Amino acid sequence: MKDLWNLVKAAIWLAFFGALYQELKKPAEERTWHGKVAGVVPYDFRVPTIERIREAYWAPDSDVLFTEKVVGIGWSVNLPVAMRKLSAIASQYSDGIGSRSDPD
Known about the structure:
Blueprint lengths: L1 H23 L9 E4 L3 E4 L5 H8 L8 E3 L3 E2 L1 E3 L1 H20 L6
Antiparallel strand pairs: 1-2, 2-4, 3-5
């Protein structure tokens, strides 16, 4: 388990330095400080705004579970969608337990 954690930490650092390299190789006037490392992992080093925080963590009308992180590297969790999905799983689980027939 420790090896897996070390691998995850190494991947995070590589993504971080990849994002910095990607921005710093651009001319200063073209730097946006947000984008995707290798076209996959999102990053955003801008100062967060309330609107971006709300869009990342609280977008109940969306069906997207993972959103781009407000600041840093990686993804955030859209909490209303996560709660809906967890509620659906719990409901299915409780329905499955209630529908079991007792063999006795």
